[in-house]
Amino acid sequence: MPYFLLDNPYMALAWCLGNGALVILIFTFFVSVVREEAFKPAFLEMIGVAFGVAGVSFLIGLLAKRLLNVDV
Fold it and tell me: Per-residue pLDDT for 8 more than 90?
């Protein structure tokens, strides 16, 4: 959704990552309370995986944009 609302892809990426971090925060807190586990290690693992995948996907998109000379 933010990619339709914002012209700057980096701001749209930041918006998506912020929303994703909020969802991960709420979900991880819920799971850690139910399982009676530590919140911080689980949150850091989840956020690392999510942001890592998002970053790699974003870089692949930028690479494809440059190689294919596509400007959306």
Answer: no
DSSP assignment of 1-63, as one string?
-HHHH-S-HHHHHHHHHHHHHHHHHHHHHHHHHHHT--HHHHHHHHHHHHHHHHHHHHHHHHH
For residue 30, give the amino acid letter.
F
pLDDT tens sequence across 28-45? 999 999 999 999 999 999
Q: Which residues contact 35 (CB under 8 A, 6 or more apart)?
A: none
Interatomic CA distance for residues 23 and 69, integer angstroms: 34
Q: Domain total for the chain?
A: 1
**Parent domain of 43:** 2-68
